[in-house]
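[User]
If only I could read backbone structure tokens as easily as an amino acid sequence. I have put the entry right below:
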Amino acid sequence: DCTNRLLMPGLVNAHVHSWEALFKGRYDNLPLELWMLLSYPILGVEPMSDRLIYLRTLLVGLESLRNGVTCLLDDVIEMPTQSLAALDAVFRGYEDIGIRANCSGNIVNRPYIDSIPFVDDVLPADLLAEARAVSPRTVEEYLTTSKEALIRYDGRAGRLRYVIAPSGPQRCTDDLIIGANALSREYDTTFHVHVLETKMQAVTGREFYGATLVEHLDSLGVLSDRATLAHGIWLTDGDIARLGEVGASVAHNPMSNLKLGSGIAPWRALLDAGVNLGLGSDGLSTNDSARMFDVVKSAALLHKVAQPDYTTWPTADEVLWAATRGGGTSARLGSQVGAIAPGRKADFLLMDLLSVNFTPVNDIAQHLVYVENGDSITEVWVNGEAVVRDGRCLLIDEGAVLAEIRELGGEYLARFAKVE
């Protein structure tokens, strides 16, 4: 019975890192490069247990579903390295909670310190030597593991996919990026890569390659409509034009970009060039939640201060498109999710039109963008199954999950604090 209900497509989170779920509310007032020294320590950390990875995944799924996210792309990172056992824990978590998920095995095959210019001038020699003594994964290891992951997980439960995600052109060797793209093309998955999140990365492209990072990726032949660039803040006009020509996507993460002081992505220029835009929360340490209605509102507001021509500011309809169809396109699910239409997956929300957020009702799109915070959601359906009703996930024991995370996660964080 949908009396006094609004039916809308589920939101799509185009970029999130579940690894960071234990670190929400932990860091503040640090730019990306310094924040990474704490959240991704350069000398490595104790790996999380498979059980904690599973619980961590449920935590992200729980917060996402409660806030109307029916589909997400989890760029999964493990420290010190990814394993199939750890990846299996992620897929089991998303399968059990009922969300549609696209999960990567994020790969970095350069030492972190070698992904930033000028480090030899500023870091102690003994630290540099110790960090470079850690052997990264080889290209062959990554491709072999990814092929096995595609066989095991792609299509699981009718709503899970494995995607290809080299971390970034400054963090991965050219042969890995080329090999990863070829695998992405073979299996028609998203090629998901971090590009130009910070001004430092704009400098990095010039220092490392004598070109922008987008120009470098283009020279490797990896830009296409399968490519999603997470962030895309410090793009040149030429970069934007090239992304539009090939039909690439940008996963825009406004809240994370604000917290890290990274900058403001060129929203209108990207849309005008024909680039597909999705919206992402980014990790739960640089945003501190996976709530997508927060992201939707921040995306609509942020670009109003970028320049004074108000006719170019984002419209509510554009932001909602990015939060649904745009994210679906970014995840290679453009014909399946993001709309209520025949032939689409039954991923949708029911919202109470008698709630405070819709009283009185004016323009529905503007209510969803500027007023709604997830409180009006009464039900969430994914793949034709009800997974949330009256604010609770139906397929897991929320109380038991949260209690176990507090126990195991607290023990892990106590040990992690020593690494910090």
Remarks:
- The first strand starts at residue 5 and ends at 9.
- DSSP finds 16 helices and 13 strands in the chain.
- The chain has a mean pLDDT of 96.
